[in-house]
Specification:
This protein is α/β, with parallel strands linked by helices. It has four helices and eleven strands; from the N terminus they run E-E-E-H-E-H-E-E-E-H-E-H-E-E-E. The protein has a single domain, classed as Rossmann fold (3-Layer(aba) Sandwich). Helix content is 24%, strand content 39%.
């Protein structure tokens, strides 16, 4: 097996090499996988917490799974709670609020679910939506839909990286931007 191409980034003072993966013919993206990279997760949480100091928010909301450690670390740094939107419904989740999105990394529809027990935690609150990488905005739209249904106010959207059309993501609080890689 030949080695894959990589793209070097510097995030929160740390360097990482991100592997490039084809997501559709002729288009590759740099994959950020923070799972297990405690040093990076904690550095990014501290850097995002600093940027979020200007935002009045009560709670952090993210989608399962790769950004969970970031939400946890950001919660520890800021002292604010976090809620995870799950991707699979379980009976103990009760009357859940559900949204469907399309993931760029899988190319498949994905479901976002707010557990019944978390309704009260976010209802009427100021919420920061958090993701590891914002590329198409599909996950954000799914999170926004659920927050609208539960009458929460989205006061900011944050990520380690934005990706693709940089102008589209100027409102995102992020630590950097990733380009798209087109094959010639």
């Amino acid at each position: 097996m030949s080695p894959r191409d990589t793209y070097e980034v510097e995030i929160a003072g740390l360097k990482r090499r991100l592997t490039l993966f084809e997501v559709k013919p002729g288009l590759r993206i740099a994959i950020l996988n923070i799972l297990g990279d405690t040093e990076l997760v904690e550095a990014c949480a501290r850097a995002l917490a600093e940027k979020l100091k200007i935002v009045d928010y009560d709670i952090i909301l993210t989608a399962e799974a790769k950004s969970i450690p970031l939400a946890h670390s950001l919660s520890v740094v800021t002292g604010r709670p976090y809620v995870i939107l799950r991707k699979a419904y379980k009976p103990y989740m009760g009357t859940a609020i559900i949204s469907e999105t399309l993931s760029i990394t899988t190319g498949e529809p994905q479901t976002l679910i707010l557990d019944e027990k978390d309704h009260a935690l976010v209802k009427g609150k100021n919420v920061v939506l958090l993701d590891d990488v914002i590329s198409t905005g599909s996950t954000l739209r799914g999170m926004e839909y659920i927050m609208e249904k539960v009458e929460a106010t989205v006061v900011a959207e944050a990520a380690i990286f934005t990706e693709g059309d940089q102008e589209k993501w100027e409102h995102i609080i992020s630590l950097g931007h990733l380009p798209l890689f087109f094959d010639d």
